[in-house]
From TrEMBL:
Organism: Thermomonospora umbrina
Taxonomic placement: Bacteria, Bacillati, Actinomycetota, Actinomycetes, Streptosporangiales
GO molecular function, one term: ATP binding
Protein name from the UniProt record: Phospholipid/cholesterol/gamma-HCH transport system ATP-binding protein
Region (Disordered): 328-361
PANTHER family from the UniProt entry: INTERMEMBRANE PHOSPHOLIPID TRANSPORT SYSTEM ATP-BINDING PROTEIN MLAF, PROTEIN TRIGALACTOSYLDIACYLGLYCEROL 3, CHLOROPLASTIC
Alphabetically ordered keywords of this record: ATP-binding, Nucleotide-binding, Transport
Residue intervals of the ABC transporter domain: 5-241
Length: 361
């Protein structure tokens, strides 16, 4: 089961350049969180700070009772073993085949026998759909396979925390969809705490339990997916809807005159688009961290825009959910997790297109 990471008042600079300051957030144990922000806002620096590769100037990173920036070298080394990391550049060793690349952390950090290493590597390669590619060199495989190999390598030490920097950059939309499904399925299987950096808005809107947004050297907002997708905060609204209107300009920040011109022209941030349902596991099992669709909005008395929670097959997930839960808990092979039912209270009055219960794969 993943661990919670509590970040308090974190500030990171390089020389006189402040990257971000006073960042506070909690990555809930076992949940999938996504970190967004314009290019250069310090998302990769944040990931590297979390794993202890960069030292922040101020603030705390609590993992249990250990405060990472202040740990002595030996304890830091031990704590790092809780993490699996896929860096932005993938960082596979070009001269090693995929098997040896993925086996590398096991040979480096454990005293496991070669037969045990083989069992683990093959298990992780199967998880990410790479069985049969053990002998291939990184130069002989596609970009998508490289990402999955990097992911398998991040998984071999059975991490409690998985940090993934832009797993989807350079991938076509279909591969991105498969990768997103893999992330959700992995979370259901290994229960680790996930933090994913992405620029893909569709990923951000449909995959995570929580979303955070870095902008202008600050964490603008961090919270449940439905909170950010329904937020009226101009930066959040602009970013999560990939709009030109809003405070973010071509060179990251619009200047004051541009913003004033927009205000004069009466450009508003636009209507809130429907909130999509969250991506579910491919085998119908319910992730421990899964919240029922609409739960956060309902708890906060917010009416989602028309068309929210309706998937591409026309199913309204506010209505499908109880059936899905009932079927999921009976799913052969699914773990006997806590039974989940929709919270009491009024349902949103939304027209349903009905339809059959969700198809099982
Ligand atoms: N080791 C370093 N030394 C000095 N400056 C650095 C270092 N690493 C990153 N930076 C600077 O920190 C800023 C944030 O970089 P970072 O790579 O975290 O951005 P990012 O949000 O991940 O961007 P992208 O979306 O393009 O990947 C940049 O201005 C970068 O030049
Ligand atoms: Mg980056």
């Amino acid at each position: 089961m993943g661990v919670e990471i509590r970040v308090e008042g974190l500030t990171k600079s390089f020389g006189s350049q402040v990257i971000w300051q006073d960042v506070s957030l909690t990555l809930p144990a076992g949940e999938v969180s996504v970190l967004l922000g314009p290019s250069g806002t310090g998302k990769s620096v944040f990931l590297k700070s979390l794993v202890g590769l960069l030292k922040p100037e101020r603030g705390n990173i609590w993992i249990g009772d250990r405060n990472l920036p202040y740990l002595p070298e030996g304890q830091l080394y031990e704590t790092r073993k809780l993490f699996g990391v896929l860096f932005q550049d993938g960082a596979l060793f070009g001269s090693m085949n995929l098997f040896d690349n993925i086996a590398f952390p096991l040979r480096e950090h454990t005293k496991k026998s070669e037969s045990e290493i083989k069992r683990i590597v093959m298990e992780k390669m199967e998880m990410v759909g790479l069985l049969g590619a053990e002998k291939k060199l990184p130069g002989e495989i596609s970009g998508g396979m490289k990402k999955r190999a990097g992911l398998a390598r991040a998984l071999v030490l059975d991490p409690e925390i998985l940090l993934v920097d832009e797993p989807d950059s350079g991938l076509d939309p279909v591969r991105t969809a498969y990768l997103n499904q893999l992330i959700i399925d992995l979370n259901a299987q290994i229960d680790a705490t996930f933090l994913i950096v992405t620029h893909d808005i569709n990923t951000a809107r449909t995959v995570p339990d929580n979303i955070g947004l870095l902008f202008r050297r600050e964490l603008v907002m961090f919270g449940p997916r439905e909170m950010l997708l329904s937020s009226e905060e101009p930066v959040v609204r602009q970013f999560l809807n990939a709009r030109k209107q809003g405070p973010i300009g071509m060179s990251e920040e619009k200047d004051v005159s541009e913003l004033e011109a927009e205000a004069k022209a009466g450009i508003d941030p636009g209507r809130l688009p429907p909130i999509p349902p969250q991506l579910l596991t491919s085998d119908g099992r319910i992730r421990k961290a899964q919240s029922p669709p609409g739960a956060w909005l309902r708890a906060h008395g917010i009416q989602p825009p028309p068309g929210s929670f309706i998937d591409e097959l026309g199913r309204n997930w506010l209505e499908e959910w109880p059936r899905y839960v009932a079927a999921g808990n009976n799913h052969v092979g699914a773990p006997a997790g806590p039974s989940q039912s929709p919270p009491p209270g009024p349902q949103f009055s939304q027209g349903s297109k009905g339809g059959p219960p969700p198809r099982r794969h």
